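FAQ: What does a ligand-bound record look like?

Like this one, built around pyridoxal-5'-phosphate:
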Amino acid sequence: MKFQSTRDLNAEKLSAAQIIKQGLAVDGGLFVPESIPALTVAEIEELCHADYPTRAARILGKFLTDYTEEELLADCRAAYAETSFVGGAAPLVALDETIHSLELWHGPTAAFKDMALQIMPRLLSRALVKTGEERTALILVATSGDTGKAALEGYKDIDRIKIAVFYPVDGVSRVQKLQMQTQLGDNVYVCAINGNFDDAQTGVKRIFSDAAAAEYLNEKGYFFSSANSINWGRLAPQIVYYVSAYCDLLNKGTLKMGEKMNVTVPTGNFGNIFAAYLAKLMGLPIDKLVCASNKNNILTDFLTTGTYDRNRQFHLTMSPSMDILISSNLERLLYFTAGAARTAKYMKSLNETGAYTVDADVKAAIDESFCGFFADEEMTAKTIRETMDNYHYLADTHTAVALSAAWQYVEKTGDKKPMVVASTASPYKFANDVYTSLYGAAPSDALAALDELSAKTGVEITYPLRGIGERKIRFTDVVPSADMWKAVQKYLG
Ligand SMILES: *Cc1c(COP(=O)(O)O)cnc(C)c1O
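The answer part, i.e. the structure of the complex:
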């Protein structure tokens, strides 16, 4: 299996190891597989009897053909071990006959980013060997909270990789800050910057494009790499849990082989929902993909009108991981429905005017699989309350946006097929907003909100967040954003 850019079919095709190391195509496009491998009925039946790591290795093996079965199985066993994913890698919880919550937050950082970031570093480590790379990869991450911690946990103590994470000193929650400051591992560095998330991101981009910095690293035996969510190494592992959910619905007798399920995904960068679309293209019986947005409902508008227009107000919401106006992975959907030439044209228009409108045939192809709904702040809070009242189920703010969209879809269409709703974060990761949605003003101490939410609902605090206030703080550096490169140099010694 080779991979090519979404924007240029004539460019050189590369192996999985090469594109996992490289991240982005040289023309600025994203990497996509040159063909979609099939998932047969016989294979789905076989996977029904397999555990999660085996399911993952089988699906990944269809794309990462330059990795051996043994390598993939060993990496998946290590990544999705029961000690890291307490309570299972991707358990499916039925709320009623239609709605099934696919809990993707049982990993070490209590958010769904773990599903990809626990395995991708292992794939990168092997990619270095496979491509004859002799240097060590230095991962630089700017984070607004969730990605940084998940990347730290994923890359910690992985061979031939070091990672440095920068976060805005006043731009992350107390829990998120503690999660990063107490990070374990011998190859990790965490630093706060005086500035906001944009300053951190701009600082990382500046270092990445600084020729002198690259030269300095090269002499020391390092090269820059990124943990970015548009890397194929983060996307491929996300296909697995949709296949796994289908197997679980078969095993429970909710579905018979071949019957279709629907899927709802709380969407930001369009990575998670695109993985569900890939599962459908491979042959997994999925009917509709419901794209759930918060008040930043640019995708709802796009799926309704065919026009993507980022010239609009940006809103900060209680589901911050979905506060996004550029959904990078949407480019991959355009590639599969419009082809490379038109994708390049749409992306040029997005760059120059902030907007593009897809052609009628592309809109029709997207409509066959996708529809979009959104929940504003009030609807999100109401959904958290109703989910608790009606099902005694504690949903985080992102999951609540998805549940609201799923119910809107069912009400509008009357479609009662089993609906798998991707639950992307532990409610305790966003304890303050969940508490406020349920009971009014939360305790002023951020850590007390976790305990009180647990006491009031009777739902246990998610394992990795327990006792977070008592862990040893390792990282206290705070630097001006102009000094980020100096901080990296100091870290490398
Ligand atoms: C990243 C994230 C999302 C959005 O996922 P995309 O793949 O970017 O669409 C949703 N919920 C949570 C909790 C996240 O961390």
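Follow-up question: can I read anything off the structure? Yes, for example: The chain has a mean pLDDT of 95.
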